[in-house]
Structures are given as C-alpha cells and as structure tokens.
Write a structure and sequence with these properties.
The protein is of the alpha+beta class and 131 residues long. It is built from 3 helices and 10 strands. It has helices at 53-57, 80-89, 115-125; strands at 11-14, 19-22, 38-40, 47-49, 61-64, 67-70, 76-78, 92-97, 100-105, 111-112. The strands form 4 sheets. A 3-stranded antiparallel β-sheet has the order 5-6-7, with helices on one face. A hairpin with a 2-residue loop joins strand 5 and strand 6. The longest helix has 11 residues, at 115-125. It is globular.
Amino acid sequence: MAEAAYAPLKVVVCPICNYMGDVKGLKLDYSTVPQPTEVTCPKCGQKVPIESIATHMRKHLKVGGKNYTCDICQAKVQGEGQAVRHMKEHMIAGFRKGSVILWVCLACGRVFKYRSSALAHLTAFHERPMD
C-alpha cells in the first residue's frame, strides 16, 4: 500500500503483526502473512480468536459512570455505543491510493472503499456478543 494519508485515529492496533502506533509506521503487507485463526492483542498480549478481536478490544475501555476512557489513546467518550465504535476505529486504517482513500481492516487485511463498510465488516466478522 502507499504512504498513509489519513487515519481515523492517531493510534492503530494491528493484531496480526502486533503493531500499535501511528498509522504512518504501519506496514501493510498481508500477502506474506498467513491468515491466523487467533491473534495476539498488541495491548495486553492475550491470544484471541480472530472472530472475537473487536469484542476483546472493548475490554480496553475503562468505565466511569456514563463516560468511557480508551486504554489505547486515552480518549474520553460518552456512552457505550460511542465507546464501541471508538475501539473499532483503532482497528481500521485509511490509506490514499491515487485520489481515493481505501480503508483496511487490520484484523484480516480486507480492503474497503468506504470507512463505514470497514466498520460494518468489523461488526459482522470480528465481533461476538458480550457474555
């Protein structure tokens, strides 16, 4: 992929290569990485099934009343819905290809034309209901 042009957050989390940091330092070459059935959380090191990584990332939210604080970037958000969406934003990255920004799911490397499609993909394929 080309050089990073825009990312939804300053910090991205790649459970495949265990990278956690600025999107500019992210190397996206999923062609050489076999698709795992489980991944390691870059934040806590726990092994997580790939279909549950988005759910696992919720555990890195600190709850204080109605407010949530992200353990990864220290952002404060109000409400559980916004907090869950915020955590998913850490798992996608936007990259410019010509005049188009493509969105990549960092859990599996799938590429999307729209940010909303990448977020919906995380919900459909990498999130299980919380028990």
